[in-house]
């Protein structure tokens, strides 16, 4: 059942200028004092329907005060809007969780990078050790080659002598063949 007349005007004035619970006067006042608050944001339709139902119930209640223009604290109460502090706290909590997640992810990335750097450093240390061993082995081989060099020189000299001896043997062989041919010739005569 919808409110009519003075009751509707009273309900409309209540819905247009909400008064926070801290500013409510519990004693009857001749005129309500407007407060310089920003206009409330429009509420979802569901809450408006709930407000209308609550206001209709309030309109049905018998008033203790016979003065129609005076409102009591009971009539001036509205369903509480979502508490801005609670919403801010919720937002900051969620933002903190989000930032904590971001920082945790970044921290994990840096830990992974640190581990990769450590592994790379270890690999380079291993490669350094290997290259030091190779260098040491190369120096050992160079020293062994230097110690073998006199023997290699002797081998080269022997090879040259063998080549010269071989040439002398060929010359001797040809000379002996010629000599044999001359001897055969002289024998036949």
Task: Give a quick precis of the structure.
This protein is an all-alpha fold and 189 residues long.
Descriptive account of the structure:
With 189 residues, the chain is mainly α. It has a domain at 6-81. 72% of the residues lie in helices and 0% in strands. The protein has helices at residues 6-16, 45-60, 73-76, 84-188. The protein is rod-shaped, with a radius of gyration of 57 Å.
- Characterize the overall form: rod-shaped
pLDDT under 50 segments (min length 5)? 15-32, 42-63
Question: End-to-end distance, in Å?
Answer: 169 Å
* Biggest beta sheet attributes: none
Q: Number of helical segments? A: 4
Strand percentage, roughly?
Answer: under 5%
Oligomeric description of these chains:
single chain
CA radius of gyration: 57 Å
By helix and strand content, what is the structural category?
A: mainly alpha
- Number of strand segments: 0
Mean pLDDT, as a whole number?
75
Order of helices and strands, N to C?
Answer: HHHH
Helix content: over 70%
Region (Disordered): 1-81
GO molecular function, one term: gamma-tubulin binding
Family: Belongs to the BLOC1S2 family.
InterPro entries: BLOC1_su2
């Amino acid at each position: 059942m919808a409110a009519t007349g003075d009751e509707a005007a009273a309900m409309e004035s209540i819905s247009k200028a909400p008064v926070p619970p801290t500013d409510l006067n519990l004693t009857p006042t001749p005129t309500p004092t407007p407060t310089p608050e920003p206009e409330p944001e429009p509420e979802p339709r569901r809450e408006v329907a709930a407000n209308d139902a609550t206001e209709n119930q309030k309109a049905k209640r018998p008033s203790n005060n016979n003065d129609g223009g005076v409102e009591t604290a009971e009539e001036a109460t509205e369903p509480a809007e979502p508490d801005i502090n609670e919403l801010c706290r919720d937002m900051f909590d969620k933002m903190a969780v989000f930032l904590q997640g971001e920082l945790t992810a970044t921290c994990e990335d840096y830990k992974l990078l640190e581990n990769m750097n450590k592994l790379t450093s270890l690999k380079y240390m291993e490669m350094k050790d290997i290259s030091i061993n190779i260098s040491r082995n190369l120096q050992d081989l160079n020293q062994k080659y230097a110690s073998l060099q006199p023997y290699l020189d002797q081998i080269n000299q022997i090879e040259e002598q063998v080549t010269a001896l071989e040439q002398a043997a060929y010359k001797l062989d040809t000379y002996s063949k010629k000599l044999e041919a001359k001897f055969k010739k002289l024998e036949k005569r």
